[in-house]
Write a structure and sequence with these properties.
Elements (H helix, E strand, L loop, with lengths): L21 H21 L4 E4 L4 H6 L13 E5 L5 H13 L7 E4 L4 E4 L5 E4 L5
């Protein structure tokens, strides 16, 4: 199932193969639309490391109990050729410009977390200062 021009539902699949509940599909469509804005802005493909997570998979990997991944509202992403810091900055710029939805934005050494929680949340777990 195609969510946007460049994103399809399987890209967001839980690593344990769990099915997508209906409410998760609706959230993933909204998330994909936001990521499409980033992709269009940068002109580069986005790799989804982690999208939807079933509750059991989220627990198995030590994810937060209230993770937005379980709701289909979050993605951990990377873009070949761009540092996580650069991706993070571009997302923040697009949020500030009103082109992407406000939400959670986390910087890590090898990826960026973006979610559509609807309110400002920021964190930095990167050791690459």
């Amino acid at each position: 199932m195609k969510l946007t021009e460049n994103f399809s539902l399987p890209e967001f699949a839980s690593k344990d193969g769990a099915f997508f509940p209906d409410e998760v599909k609706a959230n993933l469509e909204k998330l994909a639309k936001n990521l499409q804005v980033l992709r269009d802005h940068l002109g580069k493909p986005i790799i989804i490391n982690s999208g939807y997570r079933s509750a059991s998979h989220n627990e198995k990997i030590g994810g937060a109990s209230n993770s937005y991944h379980v709701k289909g509202m979050a993605a951990d992403i990377l873009i070949v050729g761009l540092s996580p810091r650069m991706i993070h900055g571009q997302i923040q710029m697009l949020i500030d410009a009103g082109k992407m939805d406000q939400g959670g934005l986390g910087l890590y050494d090898t990826f960026v977390h973006y979610d559509i929680r609807g309110h400002f949340a920021r964190w930095n777990y990167s050791t690459n200062q």
